[in-house]
Design a protein that fits this description.
By secondary structure, this protein is α/β, with parallel strands linked by helices. It has 4 domains: 81 residues, no CATH class; 52 residues; 118 residues, Ribonuclease H-like superfamily/Ribonuclease H (Nucleotidyltransferase, domain 5, 2-Layer Sandwich); 130 residues, no CATH class. 45% of the residues lie in helices and 17% in strands. It has 15 helices and 13 strands. Strands 1, 2, 3, 4, 5 and 6 form a 6-stranded mixed sheet that branches. Helix 5 packs parallel to helix 6 and helix 9 packs antiparallel against helix 10. Keywords: Coiled coil. This is Transposase.
């Protein structure tokens, strides 16, 4: 066992020192000056000449502590060597891992990152960005229980109108077969109505992967019905619609670029971003002349809209969908936006924090082969059975029911 030389000042620290250095052999020592080193210096790795003790290097972590590591010097070739201090890195990692579990617990109870940072000021100061990065790293290591028999479904609602009384259409669609599981009209869409509809049409004892929009009631409703057998994915296309709605209709090039950077989190929008960046660099040449700038802006927006249509037509000709980013790419794009979050408008900041809060529910499809990322199939089903432009034209329950029955 390592030799620990104590003084009156550190005598009470013996148990802690034994825990730290207990894994080292009898050829190591902890001196009265607090230096950790070998009793007999090792041979030089270059010329094999026995080395001599040559002072120390301090390794400090603010707010945590300091360890002093011995140095050695070769009297023949003059090369220096520092004693291995990997145990110090392991100790820090052990502490930070315990913090990460603490962060996860607080986030589970909806404590904000800023709130966690304030709490950590009483324990060991951690900035909000540090806590954010640590939480992301932990969540990346989380695994979603996989079951070959998991039932993948889409759930959505439509609101047709019957006279002055709003009607509510609740729909379940099988994600694999694209067939309708259930499609019924109700007088309300209260939590109890939704629960009854789901219990009636899905087996709550079996694992289920369900895609929904961002209705705040869904997590509690679904958790109550399916418990630990639930895998709840939020629709990415619905998220994109929310992002677009956060920006004005007549955006500047700068606003349009930021919008596409947000859209680029989960979908590949690199072509649009590159085009907008080139426009932004051109804008610098005319921005000081208001008349020229207005004329240039109109032309630039027209060029960008034509470019977008061109990309869309190319995908249609090739029968391709807008490509999704990998989980790693999505995380990278999101982190880049979060680095500058303080520079954005309040609306965009709120949207980024919302994405951060629901990150796991936005990326669960990556963990299950064949799992859908959007509710597009059910939106397509709605457009065929009861289009948006005529869903409010029906004035009776029977009229709406007859229209829905045409496709059954």
């Amino acid at each position: 066992m390592v030799t620990i030389n104590l003084t009156l000042n550190n005598f009470s620290e013996l148990p802690a020192l034994l825990d730290v250095f207990g894994c080292f052999g009898n050829d190591y020592e902890y001196t009265t000056q607090g230096i950790f080193r070998r009793k007999i210096p090792p041979a030089c790795s270059i010329c094999s000449t026995p080395m001599v003790h040559n002072g120390y290097n301090p390794h400090t972590k603010q707010g945590l502590g300091e360890i002093i590591i011995g140095r050695y010097k070769c009297s023949n070739c003059g090369s220096t060597h520092e004693e291995d201090h990997s145990f110090w890195e392991d100790l820090k990692a052990l502490l930070y891992d315990s913090f990460n579990d603490f962060f996860k617990l607080l986030r589970y109870h909806n404590v904000s990152y800023e709130g966690i940072s304030d709490i950590m000021d009483f324990i060991y100061p951690r900035s909000r960005s540090t806590i954010l990065r640590a939480f992301y790293k932990e969540m990346e290591q989380e695994t979603v229980p996989f079951s070959e028999n998991i039932h993948m479904v889409h759930y959505d609602e439509q609101h047709p109108k019957e006279g002055r009384c709003q009607k509510y259409r609740l729909t379940l669609l099988d994600a694999k077969t694209q067939t309708t599981i259930a499609d019924d009209l109700f007088d309300d869409k209260s939590p109890e109505t939704i629960k009854e509809f789901l219990r009636k049409n899905l087996d709550a004892s079996e694992p289920v992967f369900i895609v929904t929009d961002f209705d705040k009631r869904y997590p509690d409703i679904l958790k109550e019905i399916f418990g630990d057998k639930l895998v709840h994915q939020y629709c990415l296309m619905h998220l994109n619609k929310l992002i677009v709605s956060d920006f004005p209709k007549n955006t500047t090039i700068e606003q349009e670029l930021l919008k596409y950077r947000l859209l680029n989190i989960f979908y590949n929008r690199e072509n649009e971003i590159k085009f907008l960046e080139e426009l932004q660099s051109e804008e610098l040449n005319v921005i000081n002349n208001e008349e020229k700038h207005q004329e240039w802006s109109k032309k630039a927006k027209k060029e960008f809209n034509q470019f977008r249509r061109k990309l869309k037509l190319e995908r249609r000709r090739k029968k391709e969908n807008l490509p999704l980013n990998s989980l790693e790419k999505a995380k990278h794009n999101f982190d880049k936006l979060m680095e500058n979050i303080r520079t954005y408008d309040q609306t965009i900041q709120k949207r980024l924090w919302m994405i951060n809060k629901h990150w796991l529910n936005l990326t669960l499809f990556h963990y299950l082969p064949g799992a859908p990322a959007t509710n597009n199939p059910i939106e397509s089903y709605y457009s065929k059975s009861l289009k948006t432009d005529n869903k409010k034209q029906f004035r009776t329950d029977k009229g709406i029911g007859n229209r829905l029955n045409l496709l059954k």
